[in-house]
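note to self — DONT lose this again. spent like an hour looking for the file last time. sequence + predicted structure for the chain T wanted, 388 res
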Amino acid sequence: MDKFCSRQLFGLFPRVGLVLTLLLVACHSDSDAVGAHSAAAVPVDVVAVRRHSVTLTTELPGRVVAYRTAQVRPQVGGVIEKRTFEEGGIVKAGQQLYQIDPLRYRADVQTASANLDKAKANLAMATAKQKRYSSLLADKAVSKQDFDEAQAAYQQAQAGVEQAGAALKTAQINLQYTQVNAPISGRIGKSEVTEGALVVAQQAAVLATINQLDPIYVDVSQASSRLLELRKQMLNGSVSTDQRAKVHLLLDDGSTYEREGELLFSEMSVDTSTGTVSMRARFPNPDHILLPGMFVQATVEEGVKQDALLVPQRAVMRDAKGEATAMVVAADNKAELRVLNAGRAVAGDWLVIDGLKEGDKVIVAGLQKIRPGVLVAPTEVKIGGEGE
């Protein structure tokens, strides 16, 4: 019985071993087939290229400039008696800022007034004489020479009255100038003189400076070549623009200025030394947040480009020549390398001028696993403006 069992088991084991061997070979073959299929089609994420209407913007450094600036200087000489404004405060046009000692100018007014009265009295005498001689000349009671002298004296008296009147007006104006008033409304800076200081008319040194801050200007510069490119696009109709282009500001502390400005196209000029175009934008500034001399980052809306092709920036690479390239899925589901003419960055995308067409599937993920000609398994995704 033991020998019989041994023979049966011996006969059974070879068959079991053969079956196990066949199973292992089959499993190994299936595993190789699955691995080969996976290697043949590399999974990648793609974005279908679509046409969009996008607003073209340019970020440019800018500097805040006062809308108007007035340097206050005396128009008559004298000693400053008092200052009537608060430094750093807001002043109105016509508001008195300084008082110059007016005593001498009041005396000049009195003298000029007396001279005018004297000139009027002389005119009255000359007028009476001229009339009398005129009637006597008709009766030939006086000579023609005497009449001519009376007529000349009358005319000189008239001129004397006009001269004295002008002198009185000048004296009165000089007296008014002893009150130094603000020529414009705005924020006034520190006073450069104190009470007791001697000032002279039309001096070079300013008494104070006033800046009008609402509205206010921001000056920016752009390369003339960039502006020329925009102008060409406007002429061929690919970019439309408004003559009141909008401008937004980013302040030094990283905050965004809440009010929108407009670009003044009439304020453009080309710097011949740098080849840049200086542009001026105007902003409302009622809270006086923007101050002259501040540096800001200006975002200028240049225009709207119709039917623009946008590609995510992460899908675009540069080759050894510096050319922009992207991988797209060809009709046979194989990766294909395209050389692009990428214009400018728009948010997180590149604006593609040439190299792609609408409907092309650009690979955005899995690029490190593929090369041109490799079979891919594309999965379309939506990113940025495509779906979010």
